[in-house]
Specification:
Chain lengths: 344, 344
Amino acid sequence: MDDHTPGPRSGRPPTSTDVARAAGVSQATVSYVLNDAPGVRISQETRVKVREAAERLGYAPHASARVLRTGRSDIVLIPTSTIPVGRLVAELDMAMSERLRRLGHTVVHFGDPRSRGVAAARVWAEWRPAAVFVEAHRLTAAAVSQLYAAGVATVLAFGPEPSPYAPTFVFDDGNVGACAAEHLIARGSAALAAVVPTEHGLDGFGLRRLEGVARVARAHDVPVARVDLPFDEERANEIATGWTRDPGARPDGVFAYNDEYAMLLMRALQDAGLDIPGDIAVVGADDLPLAPLLRPRLSSVRVLTDITPDDLAERLAKMIADGERDPATTIRASRTEMIVRESS
Amino acid sequence: MDDHTPGPRSGRPPTSTDVARAAGVSQATVSYVLNDAPGVRISQETRVKVREAAERLGYAPHASARVLRTGRSDIVLIPTSTIPVGRLVAELDMAMSERLRRLGHTVVHFGDPRSRGVAAARVWAEWRPAAVFVEAHRLTAAAVSQLYAAGVATVLAFGPEPSPYAPTFVFDDGNVGACAAEHLIARGSAALAAVVPTEHGLDGFGLRRLEGVARVARAHDVPVARVDLPFDEERANEIATGWTRDPGARPDGVFAYNDEYAMLLMRALQDAGLDIPGDIAVVGADDLPLAPLLRPRLSSVRVLTDITPDDLAERLAKMIADGERDPATTIRASRTEMIVRESS
């Protein structure tokens, strides 16, 4: 066999001993060179020899061995989540991961999305991550203790409310509903409705947005009807024709959960002969690219973050370095801005 | 300190030696019990004692130690990709990961999305994965050799064409454009246009869909104009008004890349006073929930997979078990179906 080509049939993967033998140096030297050990003087000639031998043999240093040596990895573990990943979350995740990588961390997504508590923590702990970034509702006191006992430097939760067990990145969906309600009431709506999607995984967000609508409406003595709506044209049509038949039950301002549900509802209202915003004002959320393409152009609550993905990555890296574990620590994320177009 | 509570301040993470001491058994026994070693007889009483001690101390077995012992992990590594994750891909990924987990594999997403070739392979190899599932264009002969040399059982590529270096899961985007063109020509369109989104990451898909349109159009002697379009209303309006001013340059059938670009283009065409489908027929792709909500209702190419995520997971598990490495092995994925509504 030509030993210059790392071949698929070479059997046993090459070890650092093989590299040491091929380069004519000690195994310790191989380890120093390939791990860029600081403070060790090794000639350039030896370094080149070791690197060439490693390359020739197809040797890759072993992440597991490094973890065992140092007792902790550089891993930021983001357990896989059941949250339907929207474009915003996917972009946050990608940008944050990129920055963490530049800061020397390895971002790993894995795990059973339905796992939680101590059983989940035990599986996460097997990787000896430096940090775990996970939905607040999956954490328990025992789970967090398990992670810290396994040497995890920091657990950063995320969710609509601060976790009692760990520092939390707080995304407050209630603000989104509140922002829509403030706008609808200011423009004169006197009977509100709020859409709560019935799809599993979205219902929680819907309820929190509804709570935000209800909080503002209460303060202004305006009634709020809850409208449970699957993403289904027929069901949307039933709601719209119901409102046509019984104008007394009809709201004059609707917060439609997000822009996609707003599109669904607007279509049904228009097909039922209702005028937007004359009969009913409609407000979406997320300010998706489709919002200005609708007729009337859709008003939408834009969600802004006070913190950029880069800032969040740097903050997390610092928390790892400091071993920050105080549950009182919160990073607030969402501000909102009302983008008023023609539908309200 | 109360040793019944694994505390955040306990310092050094507990080791299997600590568990052995607390349970009054040997370290080997701890290892047998916690790794469910087959064929080793240990009394139920001892098993309970070990598990309780491990739980009390907050001990988690060490994934890295297990990897070093067995020389290969159960990891299916899916390097993070730059592909903008649509709903379809996210669902495929989640369902496939779920099944692989049930088959005893650990699905891990990580890595620099822009890395490729041997440099990328070296980083992936550090995890000693059992399999790597990655975009075909990121693989080179040397990269695949590096992975196999590190003990990876199989590399499964995915992309629009079979990889010359590894078995490939082939997703043929050309079929999508071809399906749209067949339909448009069958309904009488005599001058086609195909939208290619200018956004980075989408342009490749756009070009492959355009190629599919062009292939069918050539066979029917129908001209095809390429329309480069960013997701931008102003640019869409310019194209639409251009076609109004110069009807001779106007196509009578447009494949709009996907449903979102179709929505953007339809809005611009309608604002410019053109009738859909009277002046121009429009076809989208992906059959998104918004398609039937547009007026006219949007015709769309639905992409079907011949293989379910469960089947793909099982196929990959079998490839790992068999050490399947033949680049001639391909799994074909996409069939298409034309959903005809009102826009064409």
